[in-house]
Amino acid sequence: MSLKVIENEVVTCARCPRLVAWREQAAAAPPRRYRGETYWARPIPGFGDPAARLLILGLAPAAHGGNRTGRVFTGDRSGDWLFAALHRAGFANQPTSTHLGDGLALTDVWITAAVKCAPPDNKPLPEERDACSPFAAAELAALPDLRAILCLGGFAWDGALRLLRRAGHPLPPPLPKFGHGAQAAVAPGLTLIGSYHPSQQNTFTGRLTEAMLDDVFAAARRAIS
Q1: Which residue of 3, 28, 87, 197 is 20 to 30 Å from 207, comparing CA positions?
Q2: pLDDT tens readout for residues 153-174
Q3: DSSP type of residue 106
Q4: Does the predicted model carry a pTM greater than 0.90?
Q5: How are the residues of the chain apportioned to helix, strand and coil, as percentages rounded to the nearest 5?
Q6: Which domains are assigned to the chain?
């Protein structure tokens, strides 16, 4: 299945009634700073370079970030950190991602989320995670040059392991555990890399610093070389 076909299937999905209601509620009652904007309010497909050797996997779009702009990690503080780091590492042509059509171009990277709709409290239910997993699995299969998966947070790490198992990759026992900077060879020629999520909870408290994020991207660059 091509990435374009996957995108079309993602944006028309309405499998999870709770997530449909939440993404539309967020669009109908935005915070004051976004009043008057037209929200995307649909599932968010992945985007980037179809020839990517690096896949970045997040948790889910933010209610007033990707759910507003139509592009994952775009228009929120997590994205501010992520795209600045991608630019410093040479994966992005600019350090910001504010809206569709803003000129952002990624090289050698595909970015997606394990769950394609914004969930309440950023916590998808297990059945919502499972209902959405075929989309990420299809993206994984449509990226033939992939050499590494960078997981932003433990949810993404566990999601990546599920995707690889679903794809028939024999995983090493015991299963590798998430940690910032963790690396594991999970399939022939494929490395799993862990990073704390660039959420405000982590960046405001200093749990994740710019230097720590830069180190992770340096490791990712080595893994795909």
Answers
A1: 87
A2: 999 999 999 999 988 888 888 9
A3: B
A4: yes
A5: 40, 15, 45
A6: 3-224 (3.40.470.10)
